[in-house]
């Protein structure tokens, strides 16, 4: 196995045993990037010199016995997350020249312990999209089939992990931006509970929905990264303390009552809910449905109790999401005007012309569309009819989840109603693109954790993901069930 193909657990063990150095591991990842990125377009910025420099420092930490779980491990970061000294465009040309003076909190935690930043991943501009075709730096292609999309908005991060360009990646999930690319590319992706990880240093899209999470090759790797990045942050008042055990996916059973979950053992005996609404969605791919049902049978055979449940307000989640997000978007995007930072167009004769031209040239069409929709929905006479009503329905959706988790421990659904679709297939139909998030938006609206794990492949060889949804702050159990499905 090539070094760049290792998972975190294997890479950390090899570094500790001196089987190879962080410089060698990082060089292997960089070589893969330079070999494949021209075809996949997973990276906007590659940090060749910086990565080697950080790898050398990591090797020194390891030699001194100062290594921590992520020391010396090369990772990539979605370009909508700030990285000190490294260009962060958000995949929008208005920030083409922007280099942040600080790290996002989750990135600082990793770099402080010797993690090696290898580059910044392509994405839908500022998180707006479900296919990674809305980047102003070109679309990201799926490593399994270059004619297919990688998913959005964190498609570059998922593709980079799937193609072994890095060992893991840090991305952002507002309405499915980690989980959908994870499903399309065949990797593990977690949207944590709202408040679990700090959002400080993340380019905001919809502040009441944005979360930060990892994309990894295994669920065990996911647990390791989460333990290092989660927790209270004084710079983000929405965060809470993280009190899970060091490896929550492997340390306990359902609600702490079962023995540790290890490969080959029976594992978690959880109450698993199957929400009927997710399997009645119009247009669900038959192969996706079949693969999901097979995994549900696997859980039943391993001792889990399978319970049919209902989330009656699920059908409204996508509508609620696409009202709340544009509204909060229109406010957050107002800070990008080319004045304080970013690219400024100086051709206009007035201040208004400068604002308008800078934003027109610096934002792709999807960003403009959402700003317009949000501004309209928040305007006088429409606020109560749209934004306020969406927030009221959001409360009902959250209550559905609260009620169902009194009956079951986790929910299991397909991650996406279909596998990766063709590049350009839905580009001219925004509504069809929005509906790609139909199975992802409910957990986002409710603020609960959801994990996508690889479940199999279609006859055409395209990955299919399965989604495990848990109660708020119950990432540990969600990862346990996900880990069990990996065997």
């Amino acid at each position: 196995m090539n070094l760049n193909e290792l998972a975190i657990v294997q890479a950390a063990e090899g570094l500790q045993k001196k089987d190879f150095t962080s410089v060698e591991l990082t060089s292997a990842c960089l070589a893969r990037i330079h070999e494949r990125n021209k075809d996949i377009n997973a990276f906007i910025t590659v940090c060749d010199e910086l990565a080697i420099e950080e790898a050398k420092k990591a090797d020194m930490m390891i030699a001194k016995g100062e290594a921590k779980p992520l020391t010396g491990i090369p990772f990539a970061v979605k370009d909508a997350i700030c990285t000190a000294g490294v260009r962060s465009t958000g995949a929008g040309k208005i920030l083409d020249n922007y280099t942040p003076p600080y790290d996002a909190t989750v990135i600082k935690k990793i770099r402080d312990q010797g993690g090696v930043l290898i580059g910044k991943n392509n994405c839908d501009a500022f998180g707006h999209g479900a296919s990674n075709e809305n980047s102003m730096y070109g679309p990201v292609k799926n490593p399994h089939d270059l004619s297919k999309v990688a998913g959005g908005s964190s498609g570059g991060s998922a593709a980079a992990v799937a193609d072994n360009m890095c060992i893991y990646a840090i991305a952002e999930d507002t309405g499915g931006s980690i989980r959908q690319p994870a499903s399309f590319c065949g990797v593990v992706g977690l949207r944590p509970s709202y408040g679990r990880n700090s959002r400080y240093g993340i380019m905001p899209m919809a502040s009441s929905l944005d979360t930060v999470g990892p994309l990894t090759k295994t669920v065990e790797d996911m647990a390791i990264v989460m333990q290092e990045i989660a927790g209270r942050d004084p710079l983000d008042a929405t965060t809470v303390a993280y009190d899970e055990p060091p490896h929550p996916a492997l340390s306990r059973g359902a609600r702490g009552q079962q023995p540790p979950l290890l490969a080959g053992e029976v594992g978690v005996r959880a109450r698993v809910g199957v929400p009927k609404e997710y399997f009645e969605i119009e247009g669900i791919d038959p192969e996706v449905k079949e693969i999901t049902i097979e995994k549900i049978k696997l859980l039943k055979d391993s001792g889990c109790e399978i319970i049919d449940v209902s989330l009656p307000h699920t059908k409204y989640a996508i509508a609620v999401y696409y009202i709340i997000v544009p509204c909060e978007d229109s406010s957050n995007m107002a800070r990008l005007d080319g004045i304080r930072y970013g690219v400024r167009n100086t051709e206009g004769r007035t201040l208004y012309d400068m604002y308008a031209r800078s934003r027109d040239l610096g934002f792709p069409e999807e960003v403009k569309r959402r700003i317009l929709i949000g501004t309209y929905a928040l305007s006088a006479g429409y606020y109560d009819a749209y934004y306020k009503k969406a927030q009221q329905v959001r409360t009902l959706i959250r209550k559905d989840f609260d009620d169902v988790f009194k009956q079951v421990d986790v929910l299991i659904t397909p991650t996406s109603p279909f596998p990766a679709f063709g590049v350009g297939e839905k580009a001219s139909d925004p509504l069809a693109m929005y509906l790609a998030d139909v199975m992802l938006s409910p957990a986002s609206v409710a603020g609960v954790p959801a994990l996508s794990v690889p479940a199999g492949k279609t006859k055409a060889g395209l990955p299919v993901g399965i989604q495990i949804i848990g109660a708020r702050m119950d990432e540990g159990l969600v990862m346990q069930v996900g880990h069990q499905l990996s065997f």
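DSSP finds 17 helices and 13 strands in the chain. The longest helix spans residues 384-404.
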